[in-house]
Design goal:
CATH superfamily of one domain: P-loop containing nucleotide triphosphate hydrolases
Shape: globular
CATH topology of one domain: Rossmann fold
Radius of gyration: 18 Å
CATH class of one domain: Alpha Beta
Strand content: 15-25%
CATH architecture of one domain: 3-Layer(aba) Sandwich
Helix content: 25-40%
Distance between the termini: 9 Å
Number of strands: 10
Order of helices and strands: EEEEHEEHEHHHEHEHE
Length: about 240
């Protein structure tokens, strides 16, 4: 398959002195991801670079199976890569580094396509638990549910609300942990058009206020168009 092209992230400033350049929060160099299928070596990524500064957003676009979710999993340390380097917050992280667990606990928020909520906890309890695990007790949990339009459902359990409502609760969990990096896999995919636009407004407002990078996978051109940069995979 063709090697995915790296996004052009920025132009060097007028004064290119190294000590004046901000350090990227994400730096990926020569990333390769291969797997075996039917006795053949299949390349998901065959080497590309990207970097993202604090406060920048990147949309991953491409057909299903092009590697969008795989790249998000790599950036959260949930999936191994074959070659290349991944540097987060200035630290080059080996594939099997124990540091990944700590980063997922306190610094990296990931919103998956399937909302990972604890079924025995209410929506509000899920949000509060995630904030507490990250070291931010409560962190305005109820306020995030309200901003995402599901405040009246705070006392309900995950199986008592719709898939779209669970997805919004998952976003509230991510916001409440006050992450340094926000990853989202089809964050508005299960929402109707009007609700998706409202949730996207909250998502980007949070990202800018928090000053963290946002990497999201989406099939929605409108959502991708709101990001600073776009990386097309599987082209």
């Amino acid at each position: 398959m063709k090697k995915p092209s790296a996004p052009t992230i920025r132009i060097d400033p007028v004064d290119p002195s190294p000590d004046r350049r901000p350090e990227p929060v994400i730096r990926v160099e020569g990333l390769r991801k291969h797997f075996r299928s039917g006795g053949e070596d299949v390349a998901v990524f065959d080497g590309f670079d990207l970097s993202l500064l604090a406060g920048e957003s990147l949309a991953l676009v491409g057909r299903s199976g092009s590697g969008k979710s795989t790249l998000l999993n790599i950036l959260s340390g949930l999936e191994r890569w074959s070659a290349g380097s991944v540097t987060l917050f200035g630290d080059s992280l080996p594939v099997d580094s124990a540091r990944w667990s700590e980063l997922r606990r306190s610094a990296i928020a990931t919103v998956f396509q399937e909302a990972n909520l604890m079924p025995a906890l209410t929506l509000l309890e899920n949000v509060r638990l995630r904030a507490d695990i990250a070291g931010h007790a409560d962190a305005g949990a109820m306020g995030w549910l309200e901003r995402l339009g599901i405040g009246p459902l705070a006392a309900r359990y995950p199986d008592q609300v719709s898939g779209g409502q669970r997805q919004r609760a998952a976003l509230a969990m991510a916001f409440a942990m006050q992450p340094r990096l926000l990853l989202a896999d089809e964050p508005t995919g299960s929402l109707d058009g009007h609700t998706a636009a409202e949730v996207a407004n909250v998502l980007f407002a949070f990202q800018q206020a928090q000053g963290c990078p946002l990497v999201l996978a989406t099939h929605d051109p409108a959502l991708a168009g709101r990001c600073d940069h776009t990386l097309r995979l599987g082209a």
